Amino acid sequence: MQTKPIVSALGLPVLALVLSGVLAAPALAANEPAKKTVNVNQASVSELTKLPRVGEALAGRIVDHRTKNGPFKRPEDLMEVKGIGEKMFALLKPYVATSGPTTLTEKVSSSSSKKSSKAKNPDASAGKPEKAAS
Asked: If DSSP codes are grouped into helix, strand and coil, which group holds residue 38?
């Protein structure tokens, strides 16, 4: 049969392509930035204040809740803390972990697009018509 030489001729290049994809995957993952998180089960008040919209008072309530009730089992359990509802949790979720090290080292800002558009053109946001040229 003539198929064996074709299969063996294609086998090596196909194998090389497959292996290159498998070997390249870890290298691609290593180039991605590490996810910056705060472990809410170990973080201090100072570390918790690095989360968006979390000040010292809320960070203190998180630590108090953890002290009284034990570690958080899942990030969603933060909503048991006074001051953290669904909207607030949605802001925190990308930065919260319940295990592993705290890797977030800088305060995360929580800028709102609504606030920035009002600051740029306060008359437009207030619904005031623009003055027509005479």
From this structure: strand
Q: Decide if 128 is inside a domain.
A: no
State both tokens at 42.
């170990």
**How far is Cα 38 from Cα 47, in angstroms, rounded to an integer?**
7
Retrieve residue 85's tokens.
């509802």
pTM of model > 0.70: no
Lookup: tokens for 16: 């090389």
Report the amino acid identity of residue 72.
F
Residue 79 lies in a domain: yes
pLDDT for position 115: 44
Dihedrals phi, psi of 48, to nearest 5 degrees: -65, -30
- Residues 16-63 have pLDDT tens digits of 555 555 454 454 445 556 789 999 999 999 999 999 999 999 999 999
Give the Cα separation of 43 and 102 in Å (integer): 7
Whether residue 66 lies inside any domain: the answer is yes
Contact of 10 with 68, CB cutoff 8 Å = no
What does DSSP assign to residue 109? Answer: P
Average model confidence (pLDDT) across the chain: 77
